[in-house]
Amino acid sequence: MNETKTRFNTKVLAEIAVFAALSAVLYILRPYTLPYGGSVTLGSMVPVMWLSMRRGIYAGIVSAAIFGILALLIDVTFLGAASVIATPVQVILEYPIAFGVLGLAGIFHKKTVAFAIAGVGISIFIKFVIHYLVGVFVWYYVYAFPPEWGQYLWPAIYNGSFLLVEFIISAILIVILVKRGTLEYAL
Q1: Is the pTM of this model over 0.70?
Q2: Counted domains in the chain
Q3: Rounded to whole angstroms, how far apart are CA atoms 91 and 108?
Q4: Between 147 and 31, whose confidence is greater?
Q5: In terms of residue numbers, what domain contains 57?
Q6: Residues 6+ apart with CB under 8 A from 25
Q7: Residue 31 maps to which CATH number?
Q8: Residue/partner pairs of 91-96 with CB below 8 Å, 24 or more apart
Q9: Lowest-confidence segment of 1-5, 79-83, 119-123, 147-151 by average pLDDT
Q10: pLDDT for 115-135, tens place per residue?
């Protein structure tokens, strides 16, 4: 489908809302949550990445940004505002923008396993970079981590610890979806 035709299509708008909500529900199911935010979920990034691969980057980014806003509300509820919000700029960078880049998973138009894994990897890596930079320039100073932890090392370890696991979970689930041909259903 031509992406410009799908931007205002009611069916695509409904899918954007449904997949953002599905990601939010999966985001609540967390086997592991770090003390200052960040968690390992049961594949919460997969629905918005799958939508991006299915409907294009525009739909994926919109759905993922909505998911980011829902994730903020969930994190404030579970972790409290003090451990999630440092500054308004940080909130915008770490939620709608960092989650929004998950929509880049559909960057490759071929629906093969290799391209799907590459899309998942690129989107999660860019998400990691955003969280890392916010960690270096915001969180390091908010929590005044000891100097021996390193301003540049600690955010990489902290964010990498859960995003690497999220990448593995997401890649496995996306491979299953691609191999089963689910990207082609009801297009």
Answers
A1: yes
A2: 1
A3: 29
A4: 31
A5: 3-184
A6: none
A7: 1.10.1760.20
A8: 93/130, 93/133, 93/134, 94/37, 94/130, 94/131, 94/134, 95/68, 95/69, 95/71, 96/65, 96/68, 96/69
A9: 1-5
A10: 999 999 999 999 999 999 998
